[in-house]
Amino acid sequence: MLESLGSLTSSPWIYAVVALSVLFDIVLPVLPSGVLVITAATAATAAGTAGTGAGSVAREVPDILLLLLCAATASVLGDLAVYRLAWRGGERLDRAIARSRRLTTAQERLGTALARGGGALVVVARFAPAGRSIVTLAAGAAHRKVREFLPWSALAGVAWAGYSVALGYFGGQWLGATWLATGVSLIALFAAGAGAAFLVRRPRAAATS
User: Fold this and answer.
1) Could you give the CA distance from residue 44 to residue 125 in angstroms, rounded to a whole number?
2) Cα(122)–Cα(142) distance, rounded to whole angstroms?
């Protein structure tokens, strides 16, 4: 059971914890932002279902839509902060990117994608491990226009937050607030990350063949 997280998920502080985790995991990808979003959504859904006849119980847990909005907004704000830092990074950042094959490749592919009017790479990379960091750094360092990057960043944030919250929601609906529900949801989240990583690398392999 998730009783150990009960005091946090039943407190308004859960929104701040989720927001900070999502905001900073672009700099520290090891932060378990997806885990927190799924766990909060699972606990909220299970507790809300159990408290259907008691409005006081439902008000003590996070609201699903507010949790989604909180995670998506923090994702976009984190992207913008790193984008601006990379934009102003100067020669030192340019040299660091030049030494990184992943960053150099992401910069080239992102530039091509945005120039063609499509930024699906930004959305897909949001699900891949460290993909958000690499693509955002590449966009800022390449001085891509904010109007080219921001809409795709917003779509990526909403898609990622919606997917994570949905996993927690349906896990809570079907399995209740159990570690099994959270575990199954996390497996689905990691599977999406693995699939996204494959899609991010696939065009590159096709282009070099």
Assistant:
1) 28
2) 14
